[in-house]
Amino acid sequence: ARFHGNPPSGWWDTARPRPSLAAMFADGTAPGTDVESLWRSARSARCEAKSCQTGRISTAETAVQSHRSRDASVQTDQSKAAVQDFQQEVQVDYTSLLSFLQRVEDAVIKELNKNWKSHAFDGFEVNWTEQNETVVCLHTLSYPEARGQNLQVTSVSWNATGSVLACSYGRLDSGDWSTEKSYVCTWNLHRRGLNPERPDLVVDVPSSVMCLAFHPSQPSLIAGGLFSGELVVWDTSRTEDPVVWRTGMTDDTHTDPVYQVNWLPGAKHRDHPWLLSVSTDGKILVWREERGGRLALAQGFALVAQQVPRSTWLKKFDWGEAAVGVTSLSFSHFDPRVFIVGVEGGYSLKCSTAAEAPALRGTGSSVPLRAPAEFAFSPHGGPVYSVSCSPFHRQVLPGSKRFSDRPRRNLFLSCGTDGQVHLHSMLQPQPLISLQLSKKYLFCVRWSPVRPLCFSLGDVLLFDLEKSSQKPALCIKQAAGEHPVYCLEFNLKHSQLLAAGDATGTAKVWQLSSDFTEQGPREVNHLEWLVSEIMD
């Protein structure tokens, strides 16, 4: 029945029995009901399949080359007609050709003569080596035992191949030099696995080694001068007993330390090596090899103050019979008889091995000593420690008006305890250039073997006279603090290498930039012009 409004009173009670509360909330279990998915059945009916891949894609293999290929050469294929035309004799109008050559003959000869006389390419050489823009340190070499004794690198020398560097150890400032043990060490810089603190060869020496010099053609021979005055030659290929010759302590031996040793130039000494040594005892001695591993005195010279040539520039010289102590020596590159020596009195002296005048001093030597000094140059303010002759000059015809044809001028450099470097011509006593570079001692100076206008000196200062004659082109810091550089040497075989040894017992190998190793066009002429301008 449907009612509108409120039901009549008592309707619920009469229309339906009212259940009890227990019946309304009793436990019960209803059976489960399955509902079939129409979507799955419909999809199965259509047999639709899905996967990660798309439908099958048709593919084809394609190589880099095309399917059809043929060989092709630089020249195009010649046709038979072209071959026949080529093989036919070329028709030349010899009459016209002769007429043309006669017309241009004078002009061609004129241009060829101009090219032949031109100096546009004088001194020019093609350089195929890699360019180096900066100066870098390639190796820092040291011997721990020598550094433990606070020994210094007193000398460095390159062997004949330019691959081995030798260093001598001693002490130049203080200590008991006569009894202190020292060393000679060598490193092969081309050896794989080079250890800068482990030399390839170490020679123990009972006296301080003051100087070294490798043989100019035999890579394993090296000579050394000792503080005791002895001269020793070692063979670095003999590891057990490397000493092959020595002077021993005789009446002919130097009585002062040997400060430089040189292998004498000249073919006559090739089979039997002759050595030259200088010392502060004033003697310059020449030694030859004898049987039994002995070096015997062959000839000698002695510098006595009384026999040094007088000049107006030598006002402070002590003119007596006292020995003039020799500290350094350099041979002329153009006259094997001429050499320059630096002495303790501050002077540089031009000397000759052809001198015949006897020395005015009784020496007790087994051979008579001669007086070699021929010319004296204006002095430094202290002892001269190093001299270096220029390997460059121009051989010319006297009397020519061109500056490049003036008489040759052999040049040399000197440095000493006054901190100055002098550039000298052998033709005049006063220096061409005098530079005050340091307030400290300068122990070494070397002329570049490849650049006529470049040289290097102590504390590794590189000069280029083409850029400036008053200040160095580059300053390299060799060692920390105030430790001086005692020695340096250019490598004659590898011109980009420069070795320097210092007071810390360290030797460094520097690779120079191309600016210091490549000679510019007409650079020798520039040096001659510079000297001529100063002298005029």
Q: In terms of topology, how is this protein built?
A:
Blueprint: H1 11-15, H2 21-24, H3 38-46, H4 80-87, H5 94-117, E1 136-142, H6 144-148, E2 152-158, E3 164-170, E4 182-188, E5 201-205, E6 209-214, E7 221-226, E8 231-235, E9 243-246, E10 258-263, E11 274-279, E12 283-290, E13 294-302, E14 326-331, E15 338-343, E16 348-352, E17 369-370, E18 373-376, E19 384-389, E20 411-416, E21 420-425, E22 433-436, E23 445-447, E24 454-457, E25 461-464, E26 474-475, E27 485-490, E28 497-502, E29 506-511, H7 523-535
Parallel strand pairs: 13-17
Antiparallel strand pairs: 1-29, 2-3, 3-4, 4-5, 6-7, 7-8, 8-9, 10-11, 11-12, 12-13, 14-15, 15-16, 16-18, 19-20, 20-21, 21-22, 23-24, 24-25, 25-26, 27-28, 28-29
Protein name: WDR34 protein
GO molecular function, one term: dynein light chain binding
Main location: cytoplasm
Task: Describe, in plain words, how this protein is organized in 3D.
Its main location: cytoplasm. One of its GO terms (biological process) is intraciliary transport. It is found in: Cytoplasm. The chain has 536 residues and is an alpha+beta fold. It has a domain at 142-313 and 320-392 and 408-535: YVTN repeat-like/Quinoprotein amine dehydrogenase (Methylamine Dehydrogenase, Chain H). The protein has seven helices and 29 strands. It has helices at 11-15, 21-24, 38-46, 80-87, 94-117, 144-148, 523-535; strands spanning 136-142, 152-158, 164-170, 182-188, 201-205, 209-214, 221-226, 231-235, 243-246, 258-263, 274-279, 283-290, 294-302, 326-331, 338-343, 348-352, 369-370, 373-376, 384-389, 411-416, 420-425, 433-436, 445-447, 454-457, 461-464, 474-475, 485-490, 497-502, 506-511. The strands form seven sheets. Strands 10-11-12-13-17 form a five-stranded mixed beta sheet, with no helix packed on it. A four-stranded antiparallel beta sheet has the order 1-29-28-27. The N and C termini lie far apart (149 Å). 36% of the residues are buried. The model is unreliable at 1-5, 10-16, 312-316 and 394-407 (pLDDT under 50).
